[in-house]
Amino acid sequence: DPDVEPQPRGGFRCCLCGISAANRATLWDHLSGKRHRKLQDLRDQRRDQERRSVFVSGFSRGTSDQELAAYFGAFGEVVAVVRDKEKGAFAIVELREASSCQKVLEEPHHHLDGHRLRVRPREQKDFVPGRRNRHRELLGSEKLEQALCQVDSVDAQMQRLVELLELSEAERSLRQLLVTLFQEVFTEFFPGCSVIPFGSSVNGFDTSGCDLDLLLDLEATRSFQASSQPSGSFSDSLLPDVDLSSLPVADLLELVAAVLRRCVPGVCRVRAVPSARRPVVKFCHKESALAGDISIDNRLALLNTHFLRLCADADARVRPLVLSVRLWARRQHLAGNPDGGGPLLTNYALTLLVLFFLQTRTPPVLPTVSRLGELAGE
């Protein structure tokens, strides 16, 4: 398989998905799985689009998409016209058939409204599924090793690793904007609700491209609904009569998914997963390829997040050690994405193991559970 390369220490790596497999059986499970096939299909679609598209510039700034579609429609059916968002100075014109695209390229001169168009084949780009795959490429790249070798101590290497892997300010800002947007939209449907981020985005052990985990807290909404009208409806909401207190989890998730699809701009690939161990609604932010989950009333996750944040802030050595152990475990094929198959530990499990190690040193680096209880008091 051209997407697979053997690893120096054994095992294999799927370059398309950024997944490591410890042996041939695990590799086969991954290659025959839905995720790999889905990315293969997506890559084939992108390459087909590129073969059927041309890059166009030289038209006047006032030229509309419809005018461009009408001009190139003389060579064959036009599927889409996509303009650059910054200045509108160029466009990608996608045709239905590759033969129509070839006709466009064979025409020596193109003119529209007195302007000579510059037309060339669309650039063939390497397929990169999203930010999380670029993050995996960093973890397995020589660039990372070179960056770590430029500092002169293990402590400095570990700190440098944190700087290389943690969320950028732009990523943090985007996540905060999405949380604010979700809060505004869901409040219209569920008055009094709260949208709260938890997990790796906010627990102090974030890495670039990590999922955005959100809790949709409906406790205040249910109380508000119960006290508003005997029928269970609440007039300030955009929802019809829906009794949230008796609605099955699967139906509630489908309701949340419907709000996401219809009312939140820039969100795609929305699907409810009621059969998961922790039922969620999955989504993706189209522009950034940021993936996320929304769970309902998952309060334990908030407490776990607060605890990890407390540990991350308690000692400056905690974050570097956790991220270093995670990187080591991934390189040893002990950890990674469970979707890829294989006997893998999750990042959460690895983090808890490191925290327990630090709690049991003499003297302890982190306070033990009993000591935390003493500090908290009644």
From TrEMBL:
The keyword RNA-binding applies. The keyword Ligase does not apply. Keywords: RNA-binding. It comes from the Eukaryota. InterPro entries: MTPAP-like_central, NT_sf, Nucleotide-bd_a/b_plait_sf, RBD_domain_sf, RRM_dom. This is STPAP polymerase. SMART domains: RRM. One of its GO terms (cellular component) is nuclear speck. GO terms for biological process: RNA 3'-end processing. It comes from Rhinopomastus cyanomelas. GO terms for molecular function: poly(A) RNA polymerase activity; RNA binding. It holds the Pfam family MTPAP-like_central. Residues 52-124 form the RRM domain.
